[in-house]
Design goal:
alpha+beta
């Protein structure tokens, strides 16, 4: 018996789930399924080998979908864009039984024949499947789209009529009025409503990096337009936050690094639309510098300029790059730890690593955006030894810079630093309990444990792609190890763990219902026992404790907080692993 259902939906697409139940008295050793896809286009698949020709799709059993025992059911499927079918059209199912006989459903169906693996022009078609792993391309497709939805929920300012989150509307419209700048837009950094400059600039750079590296992954999953929305929302805000007074003189420049008092904000539990407290602006200038946040914002605008230039939006790209160049020069000229100036931020996002890592990182993005070798030299000059035993993140970008310099220079110093870092994460780091198909979450810190594993997965996928492009045969084993690590971490977060717990809101059968997010909670009391009123689709919660325990409790902001920086590396890694599974270009 064969059944079909739409298991999940997102803007413009859906997840199709097919279930085969063995109603015979013998083992079905393998099978194939042909069906018509008129009205929709399949983008990825899991649970079998998929080939497509025209409007016909063919699945063939693979790995865990073979050897179906009598009475047993297996479920596999695909992600697609277009209209949702009520059933699989023109279905032909062929099963090979253990005694050598075959079964066809329907019995009088004509053989569909072998569906070619190339299109009419001889171009190889994408092949789905995930080698028997718990999750595959269709799942990464679905979760990537959900991750993009999460960012819409954290938009500030005036929202368009067609904003995709129905329970969000205009907020913080007066932000910046006291300093004569429109700071109403941008994004809230987490489940609260402060606009913290350093983590949100790091989020923007990481998002752009993933989009630049894995453009095909974003485009093929139809997540690219949403990513473009988010990068424009963020960078429009950065342009407003940087006031150069219209002069080339750096000494009069002002950068508005934070909006909102952290303590007042955290004392309020409610939707951003309902806030009544004052929203002070914390600013940086030549006498009160904050190098970390200004340099990171320059990196964000430089990387976004590359992203929008690739789209053909030259005017916007030029504007971003011009501001990035001047803001970086300001950062170099007026050095100072940003939490010494913005003391309110020190309670929430203290700069532990100093500002050299942001200067090296920012210079590298300016090198990529301009091609000017002087910026590459600055990236090298500012380079600091990376923290091998920690992770790439909003405070310390050094491991990201190490990866970029290793690729750009081929210098053994950077290659060795990078390999030590990735080897530590893949081989030596502590892990939570795992499963038969998962080694467990690489666990480094209780606060945002998922975030750090996701960020390192992004580094692993970026490095794997580079190695595959440079020497696919010689680097094959290393590429496989890096991708295995990245997919293992993503799979754990998506539900391949001892409790079957998805840490992605809205994905899987058991996902968080009470993420620590004021707007989604729908209540004015953080300890209200009722589940959140709204599903915060795509948000990656902080993650489990070292022993794997996790509490889906709203007040547990260590394990159940959500944040824009949590999803940034996660999104890029999803796009990268999706690419590696759907396209045979990495091996």
């Amino acid at each position: 018996m064969i059944s079909f259902e739409v298991g999940d939906r997102w803007q413009g697409g859906f997840l199709g789930k097919i279930t085969i139940t063995n109603t015979t008295d013998q083992i079905i050793e393998d099978w194939s399924l042909d069906f018509d896809t008129t009205g929709y286009s399949i983008r990825g698949a899991w649970g079998g080998d998929l080939t497509i020709h025209g409007n016909m799709a063919n699945f063939e059993a693979k790995g865990w979908t073979t050897d179906i025992a009598p009475g047993e059911s297996i479920t596999f499927g695909f992600s697609a864009v277009g209209g949702e079918p009520l059933e699989l059209g023109s279905l032909v199912f062929d099963a090979n039984l253990e005694d050598g006989s075959t079964v066809r459903v329907p019995e009088d169906a004509e053989p569909a024949g072998q569906i070619p693996t190339t299109d009419d022009d001889g171009v190889t078609l994408p092949v789905g499947g995930n080698d028997g792993a718990p999750f595959g391309a269709a799942d990464y497709d679905a979760v990537l789209n959900k991750s993009m939805q999460f960012y819409y929920a954290n938009y500030a300012g005036e929202l368009p009529d067609d904003h995709p989150i129905s329970w969000r509307w205009d907020s913080t419209l007066d932000d910046g009025a006291e300093v004569g700048r429109d700071l109403s837009g941008g994004m809230f950094d987490a489940g609260d409503h402060v606009k913290f400059g350093l983590p949100i600039a790091g989020t923007a750079t990481t998002l752009a990096w993933g989009g630049l590296e894995f453009e095909d992954g974003y485009k093929d999953t139809d997540a690219y337009d949403a990513l473009s929305d988010h990068l424009r929302q963020l960078n429009d805000y950065f342009l407003n936050a940087y006031d150069d007074k219209g002069t080339a003189d750096l000494s009069d420049d002002v950068f508005h690094a934070q909006v909102g008092d952290g303590n007042d904000d955290h004392a309020f539990w409610g939707a951003p639309e309902d806030m009544l407290m004052d929203r002070p602006v914390y600013s940086l200038d030549a006498e009160n510098p904050g190098t970390e946040v200004t340099a990171q914002t320059a990196a964000a605008m430089a990387s976004a300029s590359m992203f929008f230039r690739a789209q053909g939006d030259t005017a916007y790209a030029d504007e971003l790059l011009e501001n990035a160049v001047q803001l970086f020069e300001f950062s170099e000229t007026y050095l100072g730890k940003y939490t010494d100036t913005v003391t309110d931020a020190a309670q929430f996002y203290y700069s532990w690593s100093g500002y050299e890592d942001e200067l090296s990182w920012s210079a590298n993005w300016l090198y990529q955006a301009t091609g000017d070798e002087a910026y590459l030299q600055k990236s090298i000059d500012y380079y600091v030894e990376p923290n091998t035993h920690f992770a790439y993140g909003w405070d310390n970008m050094s491991n990201g810079t190490t990866l970029l310099l290793a690729q750009q220079t081929g210098d053994a110093r950077y290659i060795d630093d990078l390999d030590r870092h990735l080897d530590y994460w893949m081989n030596d780091i502590a892990t939570t309990p795992g499963t038969d198909t998962n080694d467990g979450l690489a666990w480094i810190d209780q606060w945002g444990s998922n975030r750090y594993a996701a960020n390192t997965s992004l580094l692993a996928t970026v490095h794997a792609k580079h190695l595959a492009e440079v020497d696919p045969e010689g680097n094959a084993d290393r590429v496989e190890d890096l991708l295995d690590f990245a997919s293992d971490q993503l799979d754990f977060m998506m539900g391949d763990n001892p409790d079957g717990q998805s840490f992605v809101v809205g994905f899987g059968e058991d996902f968080p219902l009470n993420p620590h997010h004021r707007g989604a909670s729908g209540t004015t009391h953080v300890d209200d026992p009722a589940p959140n009123a709204y599903i915060l689709h795509g948000a990656l919660v902080g993650g489990p404790a070292r022993n794997g325990d996790y509490d889906d409790v709203r007040t547990n902001y260590v394990e159940n907080e959500v944040a824009t920086d949590y999803n940034a590396g996660f999104s890029g890694a999803l796009a990268g692993v999706y690419e590696s599974q759907v396209y045979d270009i990495w091996m």
